[in-house]
Amino acid sequence: MSVSTTSRSIEHIYAEVQQFYARHMQLLDAGEAEEWAMTFTEDGVFAPPSLPEPIRGRANLAAGARKAAEERAAAGETHRHWQGMIAVDPRPDESLHVTCYTQVLVTPRNGSTRLHLMCVCRDVLVRENGRLLVRERRVTRDDRP
Amino acid sequence: MSVSTTSRSIEHIYAEVQQFYARHMQLLDAGEAEEWAMTFTEDGVFAPPSLPEPIRGRANLAAGARKAAEERAAAGETHRHWQGMIAVDPRPDESLHVTCYTQVLVTPRNGSTRLHLMCVCRDVLVRENGRLLVRERRVTRDDRP
Amino acid sequence: MSVSTTSRSIEHIYAEVQQFYARHMQLLDAGEAEEWAMTFTEDGVFAPPSLPEPIRGRANLAAGARKAAEERAAAGETHRHWQGMIAVDPRPDESLHVTCYTQVLVTPRNGSTRLHLMCVCRDVLVRENGRLLVRERRVTRDDRP
Predict the structure, then answer these.
(1) Count of structural domains, chain C
(2) Residue C82: closest CA among chain B residues belongs to which residue?
């Protein structure tokens, strides 16, 4: 039998999840699209508020992140994704159901930072080979409730 | 003798407090007024900067949160309370004295998110039946120093 | 042999770092310049984006923080430094290499809070007599990439 999630302490899980999000979003914001996609499961799903259909699988996730990074570069903007108020619900199947808030902060070159979007992020995180990965992400925007 | 707070590791306490605030504020922002009030002690006190007198007790806390949720709904706004920079000071009586920063972020339907208030939140958290609860909260606004 | 950093659990280190930053920035924002400088090593270095040369040593760090606090008081402003998305990389020499995001939030008396700066903070934290201290800090601004 594998080690169950529930055998890990809440403090261990909570630190892991925070550290995971920090690296995950730093990769995204740095335009490291392929490395970011590797923090999803192979068949990971991301349902962003901006698209009619979810993005499925690492290749598509990487392509989407690559395109977004190129658009930011062309616009001379830096984007930061900031997760907070992270509530982690460990499930018997070892997955972690996370509900957190996300700020998307945009800074143009030589301009003022603006709070571009306020979102709620609902993730299912799973462990593969000891590492946390996103299996499913659903994001809603506060301006489109 | 009960288990003293100081017998818990700092990492355990710190994860508990962060998780507590995440759920506590998610309840408030979702308009779950009664559930939110239950995260205070029965005689819990909340001294917000907007009122001349503190709010005392779960019934009054729930009524206040319910009224605020109705006002937000009428205005077509979503509010998010975001705690950060959380400093936890465990006391010998098993209470936790917390000083943290709070952003209040407001998003109108189809509008831009604004940083409505920047506050400092000073809480006394206590444990009842193993769960953390707010016994006392004092909040100050940076724009009314 | 001293206890190596790697003998501490990630959850312990992660809680310590978060708690450290909370107190560190609360001291800075409260204008406790000397106490803040004591959270650097004696020869600590801070390379902010606003200066051509890094600030070196506690006396200079305290003087800089004191001057900034006086300028804020004269302007009638409150500043908040908010670290988030904290990624901690423990090294074999027991130092902690941290990369995190920093919001600098400014609130004028009776005015609206503005997100003054969005930064990336890269720290080297070390342990002296059991306490974490900043040995080196390099900060970049998103508007001056």
Answers:
(1) 1
(2) B85
